[in-house]
Structures are given as C-alpha cells and as structure tokens.
Specification:
alpha+beta, 14 strands, about 25% helix, about 35% strand, 7-stranded mixed sheet, Aminopeptidase
Length: about 290
C-alpha cells in the first residue's frame, strides 16, 4: 500500500474531531456526559457598554473551565472580578461540575484566583516569553467547605451574556494581553494528513501557533488498522517542524491515560496532571521545547 502526506483541507478538522471523540467515548464510560456549554456573564455601565465579563466552558464531563475573565482597567479594584468569579462558581456548581480549571499568566490575576481557593497545579516558565510564567490552576467544587465566601461588595449587576458578548470579552482580554506582551505575528494553523491508496485519510494532525509563538497540538489521529507503523510519530514530527518554521519555540498538548506514554517517548513532559477528569481518569498537560 502506498501512502502520501498532504496538507489538510476544509472539513478535515471536523472529520478528525469525530474520530477522536469516538476513541475517547470507547475508553471512558461516563453516563452523565452532556454537550459542551458556554456560559457568559457580563457587567455593563449606565450606557450599556460592557466593562467586564467572563466566559465559562462546561465540557461534556461536567468539568468547568474559566476560559476568560476581563475587567476594563478603570473599573478594577472595585470587586467586579470577585463578583464574576463567585457567579461562575455558582453556575458551575448548579450544573453539577466537580471542579473548575483556568490558565493565567503572571501579568494577569493569579492572586485574585488564589483568594477564591484556586491552587496552582502546573507552571511553565518563560511563557509566553522569557521572564514570564504561565500557571494552570484548579479548584474543587464537590466539597462544600471549599465554596467561595462573600468577598468585597460589588455595586454592579452581573448579567447573563450571549455568544456575541463572549467574543467581545475575548477580544478585550487579547487587547490587554498584547499591551503586556506584544503579539509577534498572526495565528497560524497547520494541518497534515496521510492518505491511503484510495485517497482516504488514515491519519491526520492539526496544530496552531499563536501570536506569542506558542504551538498547540490540537488533534492527532491514526486509524486503528494503521497504528504501530510510525505514522503518528511522523505526523507529530512534521507538525513540530512546521510549527518551528512559523516561529514556535515551545509546543503543548493535552494527553490521556491511554496516550500519555506515546508523547513521553517523543520528548514531551507532563507539567500538570488533572485527576478525576472525569472520575477515575486523568488529563495530562504536556510540553516540549522545540
């Protein structure tokens, strides 16, 4: 059989995502799985302009991720950030989430999160650039004694938001981040697939290089009959090589119990382990210097 490696095209990402989800579903028996859900909260001024907000993602295993938290500069230190954290925590608990995770940089809000019971579970030094650090943080929500107590009062009303609000809040945080660490270039997507004799995909991978030259392996898949032939290793090496060409100096990936050893063999190290994700399984955040 002859194989050829070519760039991915539109629609390949959805195809590969479905394949990977099927693998995960075959590994994890979790009866209470739900669809991923975006929960948005916002704060507006008297003219209806958004001055603060947060985007919470509740995934299919009822794990909550505080993806975005932003407060406009002149409204900081007024209890708005604290009020938003309490609101998303209440929302996550109401949805039955067992814990909440988040990622933050040293120029963001680590002390605020620690005030509300979040603990650092993983650190990457010199990220996004030399002299800075990135922290993964976690808080258990299935322990009532760990529930956030009332903090500083906030005179602003927390309102539910929609997807348009979520995009605005995301853009505002990016704007703030770039004011602290300027962007190097635009986001770059990299996709490669291996085709068989009939041009059917038998393996594929997707990676991204963000505006700070941090690469992410988003998906890596090899069809079961074609495993243990080196395809996964070749694809990963190809993605890493292209990421490096696009300026990346570090690459990150999320792994599970059944594939973490594969990535370890290829030079990735675990910097953060999230246990019970979902119950009985672990999620591993891994990194590799390019």
């Amino acid at each position: 059989m002859g194989y050829k490696t070519i760039p991915c095209v539109e629609g390949d990402d959805e195809f590969i995502a479905d394949k990977l989800n099927a693998i995960t579903d075959s590994k994890i028996d979790f009866e209470d799985a739900i669809e991923d859900e975006l929960v948005v909260f916002k704060v507006t001024d008297s003219d209806g302009n958004i001055i603060a907000g947060c985007n919470l993602i509740i995934n299919c295993w009822k794990a909550a991720d505080l993806d975005i938290l932003w407060v406009e500069e002149k409204y900081r230190k007024q209890g708005i950030g604290s009020a938003l954290i309490r609101e998303v925590e209440r929302a996550a608990r109401k949805k039955g989430c067992h814990f909440m995770t988040l990622g933050t940089f040293d120029f963001q809000a680590r002390p605020l999160y620690e005030k509300f019971g979040f603990a650092v579970c993983g650190t990457i030094e010199d990220c996004p650039t030399k002299g800075h650090s990135h922290y993964d943080m976690i808080k258990r929500l299935d322990d009532s004694s760990n529930e956030s107590v009332t903090a500083a009062s906030c005179t602003y009303e927390i309102q539910p938001g929609d997807e348009d609000d979520a995009e605005y809040i995301d853009d505002k945080l990016v704007e703030y981040n770039w004011s602290q660490v300027p962007a190097v270039h635009d986001f770059e997507w990299i996709g490669r697939k291996i085709q068989g004799d009939h041009d059917e995909p038998v393996a594929a991978g997707f990676a991204g290089v963000n505006f700070w030259n941090i690469a992410f392996i988003e998906m890596l898949w090899v069809d079961e009959p074609h495993r243990n032939q080196g395809m996964g290793s070749c694809l990963l090496s190809d993605l890493e090589r292209e990421a490096k060409k696009n300026g990346a100096c570090i690459v990150m990936i999320d792994a599970r119990d059944w594939n973490v050893d594969f990535f370890k063999k290829l030079g990735y190290t675990v910097y953060c382990t999230l246990e019970d994700y979902p119950n009985g399984y672990s999620k591993y955040k891994m990194q590799k210097q390019l």
